[in-house]
Design brief:
116 residues; mainly alpha
Length: 116
């Protein structure tokens, strides 16, 4: 009888240790998934920032329709209302000075999003 009780106690201890280890693994996986999601958001923002910098700020030629659509699609895929609002301010600029100021604000916002 003592051997059965000892075996049951050992199995119970093993079960509790296993349960604690599984709990720790679930916590680690959840933490990793959050980090992965944040990394994906940062990657999208960096991709848009690079596209904006290369195709708009550093470009010597006017922005064609395809480039404008690619930028518009990219900024919408960010699902960030503040970035999208700033993008609209930039695209709706009427003067060169206003466009320059709005571009600076957009670039500053994009940099802030990736460093937060």
């Amino acid at each position: 009888m003592n051997k059965k009780i000892l075996l049951a106690v050992l199995l119970l201890i093993f079960f509790c240790i296993s349960l604690a280890a599984n709990g720790a693994l679930v916590f680690s996986i959840a933490k990793f998934q959050n980090a992965l999601a944040q990394h994906e958001v940062n990657r999208k923002i960096l991709d848009f920032r690079n596209m904006f910098t290369e195709d708009v700020l550093l470009s010597d030629r006017p922005i064609d329709f395809d480039t404008r659509m690619a930028l518009e699609t990219s900024v919408r895929s960010l699902n960030d209302q503040e970035v999208f609002t700033q993008w609209q301010k930039f695209t709706n600029s009427q003067t060169k000075e206003d466009a320059t100021a709005q571009a600076k604000n957009l670039l500053k916002l994009l940099i802030q999003r990736t460093t937060d």
